[in-house]
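Worked example 3. Consider a protein that binds flavin-adenine dinucleotide.
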Amino acid sequence: MRIAVIGAGIVGVTTALELVSHGHEVVVFEKNTGIAQEASFATSGFIGPGLIHSWTVPQMAARVIQKMMFGSGAYSFHGLKNIPLKWLWQWSSACTHADFKLKIESLQRLAFYSQEVMKGISEQYGFQFELSKGSILVCRQEKEMKQFQLQLDLMTANGIAFKKLDPTETRILEPALSEEIQFFGSILFPNDEVANCRQFALLAKQQATLMGAEFRTGQEVLPLSLESSKQIQIPLQPKEDFDHIVVCAGIHSKSLLKHLPVNLPSLAVHGYSLSAAVREHIDAPVYGIVDAKHHIAIARMGQRIRVSGITEVGNNKKPPNECVQLLYKTLNDWFPGAAKTHEAVQVWRGTRDMLTDGLPILGHSGVPGIWLNTGHGNHGWATSCGSARAIADMVSSRGCEMDLKGLGIERF
Ligand SMILES: Cc1cc2nc3c(=O)[nH]c(=O)nc-3n(C[C@H](O)[C@H](O)[C@H](O)COP(=O)(O)OP(=O)(O)OC[C@H]3O[C@@H](n4cnc5c(N)ncnc54)[C@H](O)[C@@H]3O)c2cc1C
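Given these inputs, the predicted complex is written out as structure tokens:
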């Protein structure tokens, strides 16, 4: 079949690779001049089910709103008009709804499956993408560990490995941790990983191209229409017919679907990362580290250290100094001297497409020929390969290996 993929972020590129390896003729449309230039550009890099943090645990909405309104460097908020009330209401309902545990489990399951699929792809094609094993959630205070307990209980029930560590045990694993910092303890996720998302996207594109997929960059697809739902329209070009279209356009998916009866309750939630060269290898982290207080990640990616996080809503034109300073401070709290933060630091702002229940949408849109693989929010790198395989299986009318219950558009 002839299939169009809209968007060449990590989700679109992995979808293209899966579709072409299922034997389809694939054309990828990307509005930027290159691939992975938006949300997939400089992510924290975390993969695996351990540090999946759902946006829909009880009290999450209240906690985040309070932090945004009353000031916490990790949360930045630029005006109520940027958060549609309907979105807010649906989100806070999702946080208290009886099925919130099922939602977290779905996300953990998808991340688990995705990691397996990614491993298979990397082995099959020999991809090298700065992968390192294991992540650690470091908790300054006991209450931070308690806030994570619900996820840990679900992991225990589902056989996902983790281990609670005291500070001494943590320091054995992470010898470069600052001697100054006092903390309560940590949680080790030995099977989680950290890796370079953009690099994987570039390799996957190269492989998909070798297998026959066509990537058309610099081509912005106009909003899809109900009358000709299987046609792609690029400005000043004739319409082009496809058997199926898969929408993988991240935060732009909503506007692509605006003429269709498809309700995509997404919100743009921005985040930041700093990438700087490693100063001394001995001072750099071994594992992917997440500071539970600020939800800020510190990870080594090849020859660089990346510090990332922040939840920002609204149209702020320039990076708020407070947010960026918090990234530097968090690095300095845990790994002082690990990175060359006085030279050539790359500061990046990316936009997550966050749906009200924190899960992506995978499946048929309800409009003939249009499929959705979007809404990946905080975890699109961790869920990309599994989502791509699931969509390719569905489009090809094959049975999916993974249970996709609760991930379709019908839930909205
Ligand atoms: C600071 C930060 C840290 C993060 N850390 C992690 C992490 O550790 N682990 C993790 O799993 N996730 C992480 N994420 C989330 C992850 O980055 C996203 O979920 C993921 O990149 C989404 O990928 P995507 O392909 O859906 O979107 P994108 O990468 O944004 O790709 C969408 C593409 O569609 C293109 N497009 C849109 N509209 C059109 C159109 N009309 N025509 C043609 N092309 C179009 C865009 O140009 C873009 O290239 C992080 C995000 C941020 C901001």
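Take a moment to read the result before moving on. The chain has a mean pLDDT of 92. The radius of gyration is 21 Å.
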